[in-house]
Amino acid sequence: MKRRFGLMFFAFILILSMGLAGCNNDSGGKKTGGESSSDGGSSSGGTLVFGRGGDSTSLDPAVTTEGEAFKVTKNIYETLIEFGEQDTEIHPGLAEEWSESEDGLKHTLKLRKGVKFHDGTDFNAEAVVFNFERWKAGNKEQFYYYNSQFGDVIKEVKAVDEYTVEFTLNRILAPFYKNLAMSPFGIASPAAIEKYGDKFIENPVGTGPFKFKEWKRNDKVTLVKNEEYWDKGLPKLDEVIFRVIPENSARLNALNTGEVDIIDGVNFSDVESIENNKDLQTFYRPSLNVAYLGLNNERGPMKDKKVRQALNYAVNKQALIDAFYAGAAEPAKNPMPKTVAGYNDDVEAYEYDPEKSKELLKEAGYEDGFEMELWAMPVARPYMPDGKKVAEALQKDFAEVGVKAKIVSYEWATYLEKTRVGEADTFLLGWTGDNGDADNFLYVLLDQDNIDSNNYARYANKEVHDLFIKAQSTNDQDEREKLYKEAQLLIKEDAPWIPLVHSEPALAGRADVTGFKAHPTGSDLLATVEFKK
């Protein structure tokens, strides 16, 4: 008994001394790392500044499709099911366990008890029902992800009791649980949604490890520690600031000077110098992406399949990899990477062949070429380190076959919206997979159901659509893979895109940052990040 009292007294003195040290630490509003110590361990607390290329378009993950938003919201909201630290295997999240009926049409989830939203209201089954009913009843163009991942598949979501939710489906949806783990399906506070209405996109309230504090558009988003977080001991940091620094070189300079602690969108050519700097470290995001040039299938010459095929033959993908990815990428021939089950390696790639390109253009009636707009991404993304320079390289490739491409760009949110509604002739974009399933690449990006959401190329093929729906509607994984492989052959022939590369993106950080795990989906949870002592 005396020994236990002694330990408690020592802990009290330690806590008191740390509190006094904190009171005397005037940071002057500047960012601070963890407390220093000589034991070489790690320390909780402090502010981490994450430098990124573009601003979020929304802080409500349900109404956006872009990674800059999810980068932030992943730390504010939680999903019913979570992915692994650096993979897309499923694990308990806000739901601790789940079960499926024999016919695959009913899914019962047991929810975690004692969880509260950041506004103090209770997380429970009714909150889950509220979120799904909101997404289902909302505008299809507003809730892109719900409609692309679930559409009309969910018949009913019912609160069986306070901590049990039952989903009834109209048909089998093979990636159902993986879909639930995706960032867009973070569960939000019903009270906050009703309170803020249309302003909820800038007043986010979830159950996650960090709470929203401030959003200064095109500058920074500030999050603070959720002191009431259900997972005790987390998060380690007191504050996270997501700071917008559009230029890759400026972002790296800010890292070198200590203005930021982690950056993404690292130029592949800068990796060697970063790895040779003792004050810095590199992180690699497991590859789950594709960069592509979308061809608007409803616009001008791009309506003609032969023109789309011709443009595919015109592009020197290896030259792009050598110039902008320092070799840390591979040419893409399918809309998804090899790491995704169902990838069809038997698809014959469009090789770089300007003469074949000219031949097809002549057959299509464009022997003298044509003029078009080529939209360049204004922000660095994991799959596209420099959209402007890639666009310039493509412009030269197209000029060789007589196609004059005028490069156009806009502010990021405007770029995405204008592209989504079909205003671009051709456009650079890409995709980082949300759940590791082929459905999340193929159906989401290229199905006729999604022309008003993620299918920016506005591609429609009934035969391809039927294959996607069949693949969704069976739990036989071998059959699903067979169907997806068949679909990829048809997509290659139709050429709605020019798939460019699959990259292994690099990030960088200060040497004293520990606990950071770059996730293949691009949504990085920062709860375990801290500073070395």
Which shape, going by the Cα principal axes?
globular
Major β-sheet, in short?
A: 7 strands, mixed
**Mean of the pLDDT scores?**
91
Count of helix runs:
16
Gyration radius over CA: 24 Å
Percent strand equals 15-25%
Tell me the strand order in the biggest sheet: 9-10-11-2-12-20-13
As a percent range, the share of helical residues equals 25-40%
Q: Count of DSSP E strands?
A: 22
Counting helices, strands and paired strands, the structural category is: alpha+beta
First CA to last CA: what distance? 33 Å
Extract low-pLDDT stretches: 1-40
Structure summarized in a few sentences:
The chain has 533 residues and is α+β, with helices and mostly antiparallel strands.
Could you explain how this protein is built, in words?
By secondary structure, the chain is an alpha+beta fold. Helix content is 31%, strand content 21%. It has 16 helices and 22 strands. The protein has helices at 2-23, 67-73, 125-137, 144-149, 176-180, 190-196, 248-256, 271-275, 305-314, 317-324, 354-363, 387-400, 412-420, 438-446, 462-472, 477-494, and strands spanning 42-43, 47-52, 81-83, 90-92, 95-100, 106-111, 154-161, 164-169, 210-216, 220-225, 239-244, 262-263, 280-284, 289-295, 329-331, 371-375, 404-408, 426-432, 497-503, 506-510, 513-514, 530-532. The strands form five sheets. Strands 9-10-11-2-12-20-13 form a seven-stranded mixed β-sheet. Strand 7 (154-161) and strand 8 form a beta hairpin. Helix 9 (305-314) packs antiparallel against helix 11 (354-363) and helix 15 packs antiparallel against helix 16. It is globular and about 70 Å long.
